[in-house]
Amino acid sequence: MIKPINLGLTERQNLLLQRARMKLDWSQRKRIDRGYDASLQRRARSIVERVKQQRALYAAADNRARRALLLVADAYDKIVEASDVAADQASWRERQYRVESELKRILLKGP
Questions:
Q1: What pLDDT sits at residue 28?
Q2: In this structure, are residues 23 and 15 in contact, taking their beta carbons and an 8 Å threshold?
Q3: Which of 16, 83, 101, 111 is spaced 20 to 30 Å from 66 by Cα?
Q4: What's the distance, CA 29 to chain centroid?
């Protein structure tokens, strides 16, 4: 569903614009409407472009977070394997849990 564009005009401003248009003759009204329509089209295109850019950024961030999650798990597993002391291993697992939970939070947050 397409949402209508809100120009941010108050009800009073819309009423004044409508009254002013009624006082114009047909050709003047047509010329103003063309300009208004062109302005709306430009604004709509910029909004659509901004939304596309935001979605692309969200998708890229999601992809990077997923990749980082895999790399972090692998890196911490190697660190834990290299450590001989059980206390160090527990410490590394705790850090791994914190990093992975933060990355998962980023993934779940989404757009």
A1: 85
A2: no
A3: 83
A4: 38
